[in-house]
């Protein structure tokens, strides 16, 4: 433990956390809880320790640690902000909200940064927090834009399936309803993966890093989730529209084709 603690200290000159305090911090985070982080199997233990050391120092309001955090992750936060193409708050506004969210403690509640448990990289965890801050602000401006609607927009490619888009308003409304119901029936992990990929703008490499898996595994998760989703949507729509067998099969193919194109575009343009 002493060698790991010494290594972490060396990464952040001037940021001091005693070995006893750090050991206690690690013990508090030993048991996994509800989180978007996946177990950090296979990660370099020194990287885990370094991330946790910085989070520990930041959680108690250490000004030098917070300055080191902002310096270390300024490009990470900016990369998330730029994905929203001008809809996100300015960089100073975003950092002000992040600082309030991550580092402010109250008498009955620790700083949010203390929730980081080392089950993923600190940078990947920060991307989740940053994306949610931006999405919450956008949703407050347009409360009608649900997460399901954002995923729907990301998955349905109008060039491939114009009949599934704005061509027929009544079908569009039904699709939105069916999609929301189908998404609610998916397992938690599949809903989370689709949300992060198609609503929150995470790249395939972001997801691989966040869940500590190979990018091919992350890609397979996305394909499996969309296949489950398209099957549920098609079944729901068949009962609502009372389609004939031939019409239903055509409709189901259109949904699957559209989502396949979306996945291909996602893997091709958002990697790296």
UniProtKB/TrEMBL annotation:
InterPro entries: HTH_Sigma70_ECF-like, RNA_pol_sigma70_MYXXA, RNA_pol_sigma_r2, RNA_pol_sigma_r3/r4-like, WH-like_DNA-bd_sf. Gene3D superfamilies: 1.10.1740.10, Winged helix-like DNA-binding domain superfamily/Winged helix DNA-binding domain. The keyword Glycoprotein does not apply. Keywords: DNA-binding. One of its GO terms (molecular function) is DNA binding. The keyword DNA-binding applies. It comes from the Bacteria. This is Putative DNA-binding regulatory protein. The lineage of its organism: Bacteria, Pseudomonadati, Myxococcota, Polyangia, Polyangiales. Residues 56-220 form the RNA polymerase sigma-70 ECF-like HTH domain. Pfam families: Sigma70_ECF. One of its GO terms (biological process) is DNA-templated transcription initiation.
